[in-house]
Amino acid sequence: MKRFRMLAVCLTVILAFTMLAACGSNNAGTNTNNGQGESQANNKGGDAANAKKKYAIIFKNTGNPYGEKQMEGFKNAVEELGYEAILKAPDQPTAEAQIAMIEELISQKVDVIAIAANDPDALQPALKKAMNQGIKVLSLDSAVNAASRMVHVNQADPERIGRTLIQGVSEMIGEEGEIAILSATSQATNQNTWIEWMKKELEDSKYSKIKLVKVAYGDDLRDKSVSETEALLKSYPNLKGIIAPTTVGIAAAGKVLTDKGLKGKVQLTGLGLPSEMAEYIQSGVCQWMYLWNPIDVGYLSGYAADALVKGTISGKVGDKLTAGKLGEKEVVQDGEGTQIMLGDPFKFDASNIAEWKDVY
Q1: Is the dihedral of CA 324, 79, 306, 155 positive or negative?
Q2: Over the stretch 276-331, which tens digit does the pLDDT of each residue have?
Q3: How far is CA 187 from the centre of its chain?
Q4: CA–CA distance, 281 with 294 (Å, rounded to integer)
């Protein structure tokens, strides 16, 4: 009996030690799992903190060489800063298509949306929604209204562009004759602003013998721009000059004038890419035209976007930023809003087109 009692006690002690060991093992396992959980949580937090910021740009439409260069400049700046660039453009130059892209970018929680607008007002609800969710919004090249953005990045002084184009065509046609304008879309903010300044310049008495007969719209589509140029020539047989303040339009007009043998009979100027206009300048179909570097417009926009994200600027007058290779830029007044200007339009003619045609 005594031997049995001793055996029972031994078994009880062994069972107790076994249970304690099991508990210790379970506690150790729980602590290890907690450590892994905290480590995983910390890693996730670190990944979020270290994740690349996403800066998006939306151009007017695809198939536009000017827009492609502008997006290239934006991408260069953003990647130079160490972030991710998202480049978008709809197939057709409509506000509706851009709104869909804005909504998509909002859902992606991008940090910035930079947009070359197809309409100054129609994008407002979507862009305000983006800003309300903490996304920084700026326009470039073609502005949205002041309520839809924090700042606008402008290629050049709109007044200087408009007045310069009239001065140029006036010289070409000997200050006398009918002229027409071949624009992009009828809603394009930048085009309409330049056209208004062209009309203001024409009010000067020295242009009393020049008549603006029509403003046509090629919608920044090559085929439509060709058709609109042909229609202008047919409707106005005495037409002396065409101003195309759009790179797609001026190249299309250059081809039509070349094909129809109208060199010297109908003068052409406007805003064009040197690479696309070199043959027409060298042939004399276009004596000269103007532009700025669209790569720099996009590049400046990339740095402006970053300054907004970092809080270096808020978009108010007097704000300053350092825009990489472009140096220091300042935010200035632009109607009810503000803008950052790249510089004055640059003249391309037979004397310098060869050195620029391979640049952009």
Answers
A1: positive
A2: 999 999 999 999 999 999 999 999 999 999 999 999 999 999 999 999 999 999 99
A3: 17
A4: 20
The set of residues, in sequence order, having a beta carbon less than 8 Å from that of 70 and lying 6+ positions away, is 57, 59, 116, 140, 141, 294, 295, 297, 298, 301
Residue pair 185/220 in contact (Cβ under 8 Å)? The answer is: yes
| 54-58 vs 346-349, strand pairing mode | unpaired
Is the pLDDT confidence value at 48 over 80? Answer: no
Cα–Cα distance for residue pair 140/2, rounded to 1 Å: 98
Structure tokens at 241: 């000059």
343 φ/ψ sector (left φ>0, alpha ψ -120 to 50, else beta): left
CB 302 within 8 A of CB 77: yes
Alpha-carbon distance of 57 to 61, in angstroms, equals: 12
Residues whose CB is less than 8 angstroms from the CB of residue 31 and which lie 6 or more positions away in sequence, other chains included: none
Least reliable range by pLDDT among 14-23, 121-130, 201-210, 219-228 = 14-23
Tens digits of residue pLDDT in 65-103: 999 999 999 999 999 999 999 999 999 999 999 999 999
Q: Given the DSSP bridges, would you call strands 210-217 and 177-183 parallel, antiparallel or unpaired?
A: parallel
Question: How high is the pLDDT of residue 41?
Answer: 34
pTM, two decimal places: 0.78
Q: Is the pLDDT of residue 20 over 50?
A: no
Measured CA to CA, the distance from residue 314 to residue 308 in angstroms comes to: 6
For residue 347, count other CB atoms closer than 10 A to its CB.
Answer: 14
Q: Which two tokens stand for residue 329?
A: 């830029």
Would you mind telling me the total number of residues written for the chain in this entry? 360
How many whole angstroms separate alpha carbon 71 and alpha carbon 80?
14
User: 281: helix, coil or strand?
Assistant: helix
User: Coil, strand or helix: which one is 49?
Assistant: helix
What is the Cα gyration radius of the chain?
31
Q: How far, in Å, CA of 181 to CA of 225, rounded? A: 11
Which residue type sits at 336? E
